[in-house]
Amino acid sequence: MPRPPGHGPGFEARRQKIIDTAAELFARQGYAGTSVNDLGRAVGLAKGALYYYIDSKENLLIEIQSRVMAPLLSRARQIADLDADPLLRLRLLSESLLTIIFRRLDHIWVYEHDYRSLTGDHLRTLLGQRAEFEQLVRGLLTEAMKRGGFRAVDPHVATLQFLNLHNHTYQWVKPGGRWDAAYLSREFCDTLLRGFGAPEAALPAVEEGVEAFKRDRPDLPLDPEAAWQSAALAS
To answer: How far, in Å, are 16, 70, 96, 213, 234 from residue 228 at the CA level?
Structure first.
């Protein structure tokens, strides 16, 4: 959301801090169980002063959802459009998804548990974003099947398997622990690729491709919150 006219340079930083604090409270207490007064106390603002930075409690929920979906969906589109093997693109998308899960655990928790508290156009927009992300995953899985990388699997079932393996990670992962996003993505995708029947030779080739991608294209980071300098993959 752009900064309203007339606000000082510290306005946006303070507003973002309020959004992050709201995500932490909603994750711990639930959206319904957190009042505006709770949030005001957590950020040291009276209720009236708090509304200087936010429009409503529901608006905070929208901002939290957007903090996750906007960069993730943008990066997923860019990865899907790369001129690369679909197995490699699935692996890159996997690591990108896990990267934002690691960084935004509270936001992801709220995203998964409280999105139904949104109403009207806001709910329809979010559901549309979720559907688009699922379609991007399904498209890569379908392409892999058509190219012979995977055996014939129901694309909807295959998509659910990919999402279920990744989307519940927020419930148990510990940032700063012995596993990072790259490690889990390697393990998850090894399981998925073998389960979907990828040829044995394709498994190490995918990991070699990932390492080459990261080495040769530092301008195309997998982190959804980092900007891409280019949308083309060098040949």
So the answer is: 22, 14, 13, 13, 14
End-to-end CA distance of the chain: 37
Q: Amino acid letter at 204?
A: P
What does the alpha-carbon distance between residue 185 and residue 179 come to, in Å, rounded to a whole number? 10
Q: Tens of pLDDT along 200-229?
A: 878 889 999 999 999 999 999 999 999 998
H-only helix segments in the chain: 11-29, 36-43, 47-50, 57-80, 86-103, 105-114, 120-146, 155-167, 181-195, 202-216
User: Distance between CA 229 and CA 235 in Å, rounded?
Assistant: 16
- pLDDT of 198 over the 90 cut: no
77 within 8 A of 96, measured Cβ to Cβ: no
Radius of gyration, alpha carbons of the chain: 20
Global pTM exceeds 0.85: yes
Q: Find where tokens 């979720």 sit.
A: 130
Whole-angstrom distance, CA of residue 148 vs CA of residue 199: 9
